[in-house]
Amino acid sequence: MTTTETEPTKPRVFSGIQPTGRKTLGNYSGGFRQYVSTQETGDAFFCIVDLHSITVDYDPAELRESTLDLAAMLFATGLDAQRSTVFCQSHVTAHAEAAWLLSAVTSYGQLGRMTQFKEKAEGRDFVSAGLFTYPILMAGDILLYQTDLVPIGEDQRQHLELARDVAERFNHRFGATFRVPGGVFPEIGGRIMDLQEPTKKMSTTLSSEQGAVYLTDSPDGIRKKFRSAVTDSEREVRYDPDAKPGISNLLEIMSVATAEPIAELERRFADSGYGTFKDAVGESVVELLTPIRESYDALRADERELQRLLGVGAEKARRVAEPTIEAMYDRMGFARAAAGRLFGAARPRGL
Length: 351
Description:
The protein is 49% helix and 7% strand. The chain has helices at 25-39, 60-76, 94-102, 108-112, 115-121, 129-143, 157-174, 219-227, 245-258, 262-268, 274-300, 303-331, and strands at 12-17, 43-48, 84-88, 149-151, 182-184. The strands form 2 sheets. Strands 1-2-3 form a 3-stranded parallel β-sheet, sandwiched between helices. Helix 2 (60-76) links the parallel strand 2 and strand 3. By secondary structure, it is mostly helical.
């Protein structure tokens, strides 16, 4: 696959995040900060994946509000509408279409092995078909944009591997159509753990109020949560995720907040008690999140501007996704109507 002179030479970047649930420090560490860094080096698309949010019980009014909440947070954490395309998944109908087409090249067995499906389905009286098949929708999200790089947290690695498998299977069966994307995972902070249960991931839905640090928490609330964070009986600030998950988690969090290497933090707090260390971690997170929260509050107050920015992003996303969805229909053998979408659609980028 080669690019033409008129196509972008920068790598195409795509990532998506669900709007439901208050966003945590884990979302920032594994997602938002990566988005900001990758927008500097690539042709970047960041999607609010609202279609994914309906796979479990949800409140429609809350979904509308949380979609705008997330848009404000994406811009507050550093995404620039002039450099990145930020849009809602449901505003680009090609996402839902691609998911159905790609279901033809995704195996039932692959979906059944998805760890997140097993975790989210456990204990539920009703498990929707959408919860089982949403990794196909995620694959479509990524592949529609001829993505080179996907900045994601460690917990999404399995889903990205499925997207790669689906792309390769489609290309083999129907001809070269998709680029096969690679992942971008943070070296530190890719999986921030719950402050009260440090063997479990910090979660927007499963963590307790004290176990999760939310990006809109007050400074005093953040300090209180870190003071009560679970550590262990051995009074040594040392990075060892297996033996010392609580302390290791706090070291990763402080490294994310301050950009200091973990080894340097170990040296700095070698002779400190856990109380002193936890206070320092809490203060570093307060310094990180205070300007983000202030920017978020200002952005969220102007819903009309948020909707305008999402509209601009959706229009660009539709134009970029159109050649790929048309190529999918064409290569899978569909007879396309002469009106509306045209026969012989433009070839996707790089094909």
